[in-house]
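Assess this:
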Amino acid sequence: QFLAVRPDNPMLFFMLAGIYFFIRYSQKHTPRDLIISYASFFLSFCFLQKIVLFLIPFGLWQGYLIATKRIPFKVAISALIGPFLCGIGYVLYLIYQGDFRDYWELNWLLNLYWFRDYQVYMMTLTDKIYLALYLCFLGIILIKGRGLIRQSAAVLMTYTVLFLGTPHPHPCYFLPQAVFTAVVLGLGFGMY
């Protein structure tokens, strides 16, 4: 049993799948891709709730795209129905099993307690260098990018601000940020 499965791994997998299928939806406009995207984000949230820091700016962006009719309202609602019903079913299951209180206390209240008491993870010099490069290249993408690339950079910038403004008790909380940093640096070098 030398190989441990951490919830970070499937959380990150489903988050990246959600982003991938959203990009496919943006290119092909097939409702199936948006449904798979939203379902992937829901599964990501089920594995680890810290994904909420990404889902907040992504959700705001989705709201903007729906308001400007870039995503038809009916398509968005049909894509949200599955995750919404699964979420309700999960909560009802927890209530039926008598586990909802434990879930609420151990996942949400405990994390809020840690949020209050933990200090921000102290970044090393290497972390600060990566962060500086990340923000520089994200700025390049915001300035030189177009369409979906520019919008994605804006979502990542919002996520980064939320992420850095939130205390992290352990370095493993930086895992999603590391993946985004690799993507942003690659795009940034390509545009530079």
User: Anything to note?
Assistant: The chain is about 80% helix and 0% strand.
